Amino acid sequence: MVAALLGVAVFAVNSASKSKPPKRASATLLDTSGKVMGKVEFEQGKNGKVTVRVRASKLSPGFHGFHVHTTGICDASTPTAFMSAGGHWNPAGADHGSHVGDMPPLLVGKDGKARATFETDRFKVAEMLDSDGSAVIVHADPDNLANIPPRYSSAGPDAMTLETGDSGARALCGVVSRSKQ
Fold this sequence. Notes:
By secondary structure, this protein is α+β, with helices and mostly antiparallel strands. The protein has three helices and ten strands.
């Protein structure tokens, strides 16, 4: 009887370990020609936050919009490169700056390189790996995070700013995939 119970316990532990949510994911950033330009790594912490590490190179100096997009496809062959990645990950329908996939703007140095590490509690690694996946986009322009004070316009931010932060074309794209745990 004890052996039978132990067998059930071992089966339960093995089954549970197979269903553990992924703790790590990554995305290799490609430019529109398919050249590798960097990497983004995601690691789920015990504190519930995800640590994001990004390294990129050969970008124009200055700030660039940096977001998780809704679909894990990076097709540069369309007239508007990487539109296959869908819009910013925004399941709640919030304005830009409050999207789940909004991440801090990426600062690129004079040498064309960017490195950043930060934590977010807006999403979990497992959520990025849903049925249609996710992609990371580095945009060509700075991201204003939909922050246009009313003194600049009586109407406030327009629809494009509220949706995208005016961060411009999609310069780099990487499909988020599960990493070895």
